[in-house]
Each structure stands twice: as structure tokens, then as C-alpha cells.
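Teaching note: in complex prediction, the entire set of molecules is handled at once rather than each chain in isolation. The prompt given to students was simply: 'Predict the structure of this complex.' The entities are:
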Amino acid sequence: MAVDDKPARKRRPEPTRTAPDRTGWSGDPAPVEAAVENVRRKKPPPAKPDPNPDPDPTPAGSGDLPEVSQIVAEAVRIGYHVIGENLKQGRTAADRFRAGSYQADDLPSDINRLGKRMLQLSRDLSTTGFDLLAAVLRDPKILAAIRPSGDDNSDRPPRIPKPTPQDPVPLTCVFRGTRGGTATPTTLQPPPRPTILTLQALKPVGGDHPAITGTRFRPAQAGRGIVAVITIPDDQPAATYTGDVTDEASNTVLGTLTIEVRPPGATPP
Amino acid sequence: MTAAAATLTAPHTLARQTPAIVPALLREYGAATRVAVEQALSSVAAAPYLGALVTDYPRRRGKMMRPSICIAVARAHGAPLDEIIGSAAAIEIFHNALLIHDDIEDGSEIRRGTPTLHMLHGVPLAINTGDAMMAIALQPLLDSLRARGDDIAWQAMSATLHMARQTAEGQALELGWRDGNRTDLTETDYLEMVLKKTAWMSTIWPAQLGALVGSGHGRHAAHPNAVIRFGFFLGAAFQIQDDLLNLVADAAYGKEANGDLYEGKRTLVLIRARQRASPAGRSDLDAFLRLGRTDRTAAMVNDIAGLIERTGAVEYARCVAGGLAGAAAHEFGAAFGHLPPSRDTTFLEGLVPWVFERQ
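The expected output is the structure of the full assembly:
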């Protein structure tokens, strides 16, 4: 029998993972952990005491939730993993039909981008707008830690500063002519400065009926809002018509007006 | 009131952050979509045993989130309403068709505060109605894509087929887990199911159609994968919040209270509760899940609801939903941050807090 005189095989340590990591969790998790840790400390006050407390509460896993940071971070990590895997499967399927449309070289950069996004996510987590995470904003130290600092080479498009949103203005319709109409209740986004409102035409939703033109706008004489004066021609086909109300100065759409022209002689609802 | 209900209805949970434009556009785009839906469904209005049934669910007045996402994404790119309204109508019809089938598969008795379609008309007619609506939904979609050219139409139809397949796979997962009485599920399993069953249909596909129809209107199109990620995280947060609302269902919610528990649905709350329960509690939960729906009594459901509350699973699910919503807010910037601010971009971003504040 031959003697196996080969040197002992080198054994590598078991890998910590056995599948590609596409989670995008390669970024430094510290900001997320710091933010969420603060959320845990500043948990909202408990709900009203239960008037009928359970006589035999389960000891394991109380509602105190001692691991908020891990929960939020893990949930987001899993989320990116799940959607990453799904997108990968989608790409594979698409490749069967459109060979060459996806470059395999894109994959590492995808992972790189996801990592950067996770850093940005740590900031978004504090500014999402619901109090679970908004509590972070009340702590100056945490706020300073997660505030964006200069260019992080993120691949996301630059954000355009947004104006402070104002409450929408109600739009009321008045119909002229013998034909009746019904307007869908709607509102307009207030223009940033005084302007002229225009509506080029109310076009039919489906079908090829002629459009309704000549809509005029006035400020409401009583109450708040804008009044649209719409003249419906006598021979206008009964249908639904829609058109955009535009700020003439900036050519910005402020709202959409949708009306229904009733059949001749139909009684108002 | 159960312990779970006491926690969920506590006023501390959220400060209202939803911009006023969100409910305003849901009403506005919802109204326009309803008109287009009625127009599309009128093609079978005279059909006996079908015409009246296809309009039943759409007239029960849903929140119209799905078509509104589609319209807002298209309009944020500069598309006029009349170019996108057909796609929005298709989404709403398809959604209602799936609801009919889901209600049958889940054995649900109430939908939007009224008996489900199969309770009113029987299972065979309800299945047929859902089938018909899926076919009818394609007509306004094709009509709205006709003017957009072959390439956009091909991409939109591919996205639609992909959504349909993913949704069917997701529903299969959920049904299979229940039928097989799976109790070894993890958060990853749950999120994969939600991605397929909920997010593709509810948020990803509408945003995809909106971006496709909106492309070519002079503004740089949204990155497709970022749109998908935004839709996924928003849809997942929406579904988890829906699961939480189910535990405190009331008339405004329009579904049975604790309906998910009666059905033994593998929600994130249930998965977590089982993980965190004491051995005795886990045994009780497993025994409950082994029962058929009709064998689960109100007292049993209340006991399980109490067990869930004691494990902290409700608060846990709320945390997860918050984290996923944070990811949605992030991906909103990646997908749509390059577009000029408008009421439509404000609406889309405002959907993130709205998910938690809707009734």
C-alpha cells in the first residue's frame, strides 16, 4: 500500500458567510447605531396602563424593546438584501431575452453605490418625519454626528432645495351656458408669487371630443380660494374632461381640473 | 379592548407629518381615476351576472394610493394627466381583481365595510369577475401606451407581466405557509413575501408605469432600480402598518378585527411573537396555528393577541416599519431627487409619513 507522504493539507478557516453579500451593508454602521441608540433612550412615553392587566405576563421579550438599534439596522439590511436579490434575479431573467443589455462589470459598482447609500440612509433615518426617528433631531450631539458634512461622493443626484410647502388652495367651479357640469373637488398649489393662472384646454378623458377652452380664473369673493369660470358649449358631448391649471409666470402646474359634462337635460346630482 | 389595541391607539405614536398635498392629490387623482375605471368597465356593463359585479369593489372607494402614485410619477416627469390616466385605471382595475381573488383564497368576509363579493354572489361568479377584470384592465393600459411608441409599450407590458408573476409568487408563498403550517419563518422570508405579494403590485409597478409614460417629456427619467427600491421600501412599510392596523381594525379600516389572526397569516408580528414567546406561549401559538380558520374562536384570537402584545412584537414591527420607511425616504431622493420640486414630488415623498397616518 502506498504511503501518503504528502504534507498535511492546509485548512482555511470556515468563511463567515457562504453567499455573496449584496446587502449594501458594507458601509460604516456606526452612525445608524448611534442614531437608533438615541431613539431607544428617548422612546415615547408608554401607552395608558391597561385597566385589565394580564395576571400572568410572559417574561420573555417584554415590550421594553431593548434592541431598537439592532432591529432598525437589521430590518434595513434585510430589506436591501431582499430587494438586491430580487433585482439580480430580474436581471438574470432579462438577460435571457436581451443579451448584452446588462454588463456584469456593473455589479461591483452596484454594491459600492449601495454602501454609500447606507451612509446617506443614516441621515435619512433621522429626517424621515415620524417621531420614532425624529426624536434624534432633539439631541444636539446626535444631530451633529449625523448631519451631512461636505461631499461624500454619493452617486445620488444633487437635491434641489425645496420651498416651504403651503396649504393647497381650494378651487371652485362655476359653469356658464345651458349645459350642466360637475367638477371633481380639487385644490391648487399656491404659486410662490402673484401670477396669472391659465388653463389651455379641458381635454376629454378618452374619446376624441373637442376640448373645452376659454376657462377663466377669479379670486373667490367670499371665503378662501380660486373660482374657475367654465363655459360649456351647447353641443359639447357628455364626457369627462381634464386639464392642468398652470402658473403662467413659471409654467408650473399648480393643479388639475377634472369636470364631467352632463348629457343635455340631465338633472344635477 | 385588547392590550394590543390599547397600545396601537395610543396618541403618542406619531406626530402628523403628512403634507396636505397628499390627501388632496389622493382625492383629485382618485376621482379622475374612478371616471376612467367606470369608462373601462362599461364595456361589460350589459353582460348578465358580470356587468354589475365588476363595478362593485371599485365603487367601494379605496384610498386610490396605487393609481395616484402612477399619476404623480408621470406628472413629476412632465406628462399631462390624459396621457397617464389609462395606466392609472388599469392599475386600479387590476388591484380590485386581485382583491376579489384574495378574498376568496383568504376566506375573508368583509371588504371595505361590506360583505366580500363571493359572500354576496358565490365563489364561482366572484372568480369569474376577477378574471374578467384582469382582462379588462389591459385595455386602458394599451390605449394609454399606444401614443408612447413601441419601446415604451414593450417595457410597460414587460413590467406588467413581471408584476403579475411576482404577485402570484407572493400570494403562493403566503398561502403555502399557512397550508403547510410553517412556523420556522424569518424576517427575511416575510420581507421577500411582502416584496412579491404587496410591493410589486401596490407601489413598484405603479411607479414604473408612471416613469415610463413620463419619460420623454423633457426631464431626465428616474433610475429604474431606484424606483424599484423606493417602491419596495414604501410598500413594505405600508404592509407592516396594514398588519398592525388589522390588529385594531374598526369600521374605518373596513376589514375584520384581527382578521389576519383568524386566517393564521404569517405576518411580521406573528413571526416575531413566536420567536420571542416563552416555551409555553410558543406551544399555545403553534396549537392555535394548527387549527383551521373556522375552529379559531374569538376567545382564542384574543388570547393570541394578548400573547403577541406581551412579547413586544407590535412595538418591534413598528420599529421595522419605521426603518424601512427611512430607507424609502432615502430611495425617494435617489429615484426622484433630480426632478424639479412640484406638488407631485411633494406627494410622493409625503407618502412615507402618510403610510403611518392613514386611517
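Point out the following to students. The CA atoms of residues 18 and 350 of chain B lie 6 Å apart. The two ends of chain B are 18 Å apart (CA to CA).
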